[in-house]
Description:
By secondary structure, the protein is α/β, with parallel strands linked by helices. It is built from 16 helices and eleven strands. Strands 1, 2, 3, 4, 5, 6, 7, 8, 9, 10 and 11 form an eleven-stranded mixed sheet that branches. The relative contact order is 0.14.
Amino acid sequence: MRDLTLIVPTYNRPQLLAALLEYLEIEKADCRVLVLDSSRPDVLAANRNRMMTCGLDAEFLEFPDLDPTEKWRRGLHRVTTPFCAFCADDDLVIVEGVRRCLEVLRSNPMSSVVQGYSFTFLPRPEGDIELNNIVCFRPTIDDRTPLRRLDKLFEQYQAPSYGLFRTPALWRIFDALPTEMKILTRELLWSALTAIDGHLVRLPDFSYGRCMGPSADYDCWHPLEWFCKNPDGLFTEYLRYRDILTAAMMRRADNDLQPEEIPEMLDLLHLRYLARHAPDDVLEFITEQQIAGVDFAEYWPRHEIHLPLYDAAGVASSAEAETLGTLTMRSGERSYVLFPSFYAPRGLDPPRLDSVARLLASLDKYRPIDPGRVPEA
């Protein structure tokens, strides 16, 4: 994988970065690794020391006090390989799946991204690991025009950000991402620009693990939350977002729309997306809470809202699996607790036992590191 760079943004989490690097070393990941660090000085020093003993083809870049999107953009422009991918410091790549994705990306010049199955996991204090969901399993999007690709993307939205990209495509995408946009708009813009740029290829192989541990709180991460808290802000930012997409579509030779047609088509696609993420029962519950005078911050976290939202996003198990509960599998020195939405996800054939066994064999090599093992500054 010498033609691939794995970009690892990190911030004040030296134990997680050290665990990821150790995992990649054990897995003998032969890609280039680019660490983008904006931590405080003592953590920067600890991370720098860890990188000095790293057995990977790795480079360490420091970006103190920099906006995350700008940090990612600057780090991305330091990539010299034709392909690249991002991996958060608390997440994992599954090297076997990444190799398969890379093979397809090399051989398919029309694709802007190739991704396998992503799954969510959570390490337990005693060393076991929960496997919670399988996500990013929608079919390949390889339609002829950018509008058709956007239509498929937003019909049942799933972000392609955990896939493998052609580096020039990702340069173009990040150069178009304004740093001051909300996190939701930046994610949607990243995804939509990827679809405009080319095909989104999905493979039935595990390639990325997303940690469900604590992370930063984000304001207006969900479209319905944003609509309830600041609808004027939502639609003002949408208009700017739409202008960026319109300009990107007009630059494409495969675009078959006139400039004046593009904005109204984008409006329809995004209205459907907003409606899907605002189910009737959730709107009814929110209306009741508002009439009763309940503060938004008090009722927004409740399960009456989030369970239907998970269902609307397709993150759920099949009805049959819900009656079975969790499964436990032993591998290596730990146990893995499989939730129904992992072993029997809705809309997807259950993962094959041999595929799960290979995944667990990879996860056996991930060893969350005790703070005492991290080199001191």
